[in-house]
Amino acid sequence: MVKVVKSTILEAPVEAVWEVLRDFNGHDQWHPAVADSEIEHGHSSDRVGCVRRFHLADGSELREQLLTMSDIDMAFSYCLLDTPIPLLNYVAHVRLAPVTDGDMTFWHWESRFDTPTGRQRELGEMVAENIYQGGFDAIREHMGLTA
Fold first, then answer.
1. Rounded to a whole number, what is the largest CA-CA distance in the chain?
2. Is 26 exposed, middle or buried, given 0-12, 13-18 or 19+ CB atoms closer than 10 A?
3. What are 68-122's pLDDT values in tens digits?
4. Helix (H, G, I), strand (E, B), or coil: what is residue 128?
5. CA 116 to CA 123: how far, in whole Å?
């Protein structure tokens, strides 16, 4: 099993960052890898159990399910249901926390998943850099923040 953990500090109030991230169907508005996204069956994007179907910039289609959502904890979890990338049993957790020494946000993003034999390092680095670090950088740009 592979475990990927990435975190960052954003120079923005935690409530402002949470407003963007809590929209489980909003990642196509800020993540450069996501071309379009929709929630299946017309459910709301904060309903636990909803499924988002989206396409990557290369045309690949993925489906992810929202497992938990907490406005109090500013956290959510999701899993991959369908993906052309061999990330098996993939479950991810996103959590925000206020940085009280300034009006900033601590963002923690982690996942665990299985891969085909011999691809642990390659796929772990792809998730860490292309998805998580790419997401951190994209949110900064989306919100007009400095790195």
1. 45
2. middle
3. 999 999 999 999 999 999 999 999 999 999 999 989 999 999 999 999 999 999 9
4. helix
5. 10
In degrees, to the nearest 5, what angle opens at C-alpha 21 toward C-alphas 64 and 108? 90
Cα 58 → chain centroid: 18
Q: What is the 3-state secondary structure (H, E, C) of 12-58?
A: CCHHHHHHHHCCCCCHHHCCCCEEEEEEHHHCCCCCCCCEEEEEECC
Q: Identify which of 6, 25, 24 has the alpha carbon closest to the alpha carbon of residue 75.
A: 24
Summary mean pLDDT of the chain: 96
Count how many residues are written for the chain: 147
Distance CA 47, CA 43 (A): 7
Calpha distance 89→106 (Å, rounded): 26
Which residues on neighbouring strands pair with residue 70, listed in sequence order? 75
**1 contacts: CB under 8 Å, gap ≥ 6:** 89, 112, 113, 114
Tens digit of pLDDT for each residue in 1-20? Answer: 999 999 999 999 999 999 99
